[in-house]
UniProtKB/TrEMBL annotation:
<dbReference type="InterPro" id="IPR000627">
    <property type="entry name" value="Intradiol_dOase_C"/>
</dbReference>
<protein>
    <submittedName>
        <fullName>Protocatechuate 3,4-dioxygenase beta subunit</fullName>
    </submittedName>
</protein>
<dbReference type="InterPro" id="IPR015889">
    <property type="entry name" value="Intradiol_dOase_core"/>
</dbReference>
<feature type="domain" description="Intradiol ring-cleavage dioxygenases">
    <location>
        <begin position="98"/>
        <end position="196"/>
    </location>
</feature>
<dbReference type="Pfam" id="PF00775">
    <property type="entry name" value="Dioxygenase_C"/>
</dbReference>
Amino acid sequence: MKRRTIILGGGALLAGAGNAFIAFGRSGEPISRRSFDWSASDFRSGGTAAVPSDLPEPIFRAEPQCIVTSAQTLGPCHTSGVPLRGDVTEGVVGLPTRISLRVVESESCAPVEGADVEIWHTDARGVYSGEAAAMCNRDDAGSRSVSFLRGRQISDDKGVVNFLTVYPGWYPGRAVHVHLRILVDSRELLVSQLLFDDALSDLVYGGHPDYAGRPTRETMNGGDSVFAASEAARFIFDFEKLDAGVLQASYTVGVARG
């Protein structure tokens, strides 16, 4: 098995033939600058249409932080009637990204099977789809009439769901983020948001063709309007570049079922 390197909030998780170890854990402060051995041109462009179906299984930390993931605001851009699907793109362009979430009980670290996990985020332009608040897609009737980059999955016996999407764009006042909502037995257990490493966003926005032409983003993780600077680092995805030119973003989500 080929060795894989997962970038964490403060180091790397190296996975080889049947073993994995953590070199460093998440840091206490948001990561704002980092260098990589790859560039934006190493990733696919144009969306998910040509992404192979046999992507490798996502890798999660061997010892996840099994604490309750902090709740955050639902936000004005949530919509109802979100479809159950794995590929949420509806053909929109962008750097293909697989978001893998593992849902566990915060007290026991046991996987939560059957959780209804929903995600939503913006396209490469920083625009949301759907009939949401005006600020989500102002003066964009086309985006209001569709439901791109929104979807739900049901967690498997390992507590895992996988969404095929594209790297989110940015909009003023917010760091790059994905919203999530988790229900179990029709009861809402968590509404939260997850962030991307600032240096990864710099790489994507600075060199990937699907994100060209936009102004330089103004908000980093430490200056986000929703997350306090002291807590943002705990919400950053672990990530890796898959050989297929797809970005893999992974996170373990702890929920309290009591």
